[in-house]
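To the team - 3-methyl-2-oxobutanoic acid complex, inputs and output below.
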Amino acid sequence: MRRIRIFDTTLRDGEQSPGASMNVEEKIQLARQLSRLGVDVIEAGFAFSSKSDFEAIKAIASEVEGSIICSLARAKEDDINRAWESIRNASKRRIHTFHSTSDIHLKHQFRVTREEALQRSVDMVGMARSLAEDVEFSPMDATRTDLNYLCEVVEAVIEAGASTVNIPDTVGYAIPGEFGTLIKALFKKVPNIDQATISVHCHNDLGLAVANSLSAILNGAGQVECTINGIGERAGNCSLEEVAMSLRTRKDIFPADTGIKTEEIIRTSRLVTKITGMYVQPNKAIVGANAFAHESGIHQDGLLKEKSTYEIIKPSDIGLHKTQFVLGRHSGRHAFKTRLGELGFNLSEDELNKAFDRFKNLADHKKEIFDEDIEALVSEESISVSDEIYRLIDIRITSGISSERSAFVKLKIDGEVVEKKELGDGPVDAAYRAVASMTGTEYLKLMKFEIKSITGGTDALGEVMITLEDDGDVIRGTGSDTDIIIAAVRAQLNALNKLEIRKRKAL
Ligand code: KIV
Ligand code: ZN
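Output:
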């Protein structure tokens, strides 16, 4: 069995998805989950790009154990020094430096010759090696680079000390057979290639990132760079869950293992959705809501007789457990706590009390409470009672085609009860205006508002996810309730609490 290394770049290339920026706490939370998932390398960010990226990498390097923590740097002295500073506290650390090699990039973007690009790459790998033992180099836009020149660069950077050489399909241009042939050619033509791990980094512009990565593995690649849910620059990156499950499901084609604990996939995917505010399309392979939904009568008939007729992956392999009616109005605190434990949540007493109150309230409105409902309730409870500044006490709305659309909202702000009525285009608009006016946050822009139902049925929990913008900074909030107006206000308060807590901490 070959061992394929999984290099996750959700925190770096994934964060380059439009609107997917994450704050430092969110990055640490995700890095912890990536380590639990068993990724070999976490690319935690691009240290030189911003102070907050630097701080996030540094915090991850000190707090997250298990995976190698990697920091990206252009082939420049200042970038490499900054990358090193960001990871030096990690127990396992890597500097990843890159320089373009295609004539298109060298001529039009960097205005340097091939010789100059080669020399800079070698010098910067050497410099990175003087700081860190583990150095990765990427010849950017490799798939549009002249093959002989690419071989020359790969050989030279290995000679200079790169222990991993990553072949990026930066613009998602390659086709699987062609990309496999490129990797094979490198193995044939580069004399010292056995002294490094060959990695691949595929973008999804033609929808081929996973296929290209698998083709590269068949031709000798030992590391795949990917992101959770396939998020990333433009059309995204190779999806981690798709590669991991392809390798696991088709052992006959790929006699290869990864260190991925596939049972953690769904939890990680949902965390990325929650943190980035980017929902996964329902038909997305492995983690989409329909990935295990069999609609056709013929398929259902086959499945009832024998699962293997239409099921190539067991939902439990990615951590999805059959939706079950678990708890209801008569369930007590102990049963609730036990189920939370089974679902992998470990709440403090304070968080548990708050979640249990919400659960009891939900049970008054909804007869059957499923695991998904509990997960939605708990993931919203990320703000502890002691930190909470704004709390929803009551809301009443009026709406209709011919009547006024208004909202009356009662909040507790720093322990004091405040109330306000506002008119709006609809009840959500009216309620948001009332909350904004009471909290003095009219200046925030609502960039995104998404709503979905957690389970089926008209009594289902509605989950609202919003993104607010505060002068370039984004804040996300989630809220759930069987009443979607209340869910919307909860999401708004969740975001406002995060913003206010962050502001008070900064003082
Ligand atoms: O797509 C790309 O080429 C990159 C490099 C920095 C590896 O993200
Ligand atoms: Zn990339």
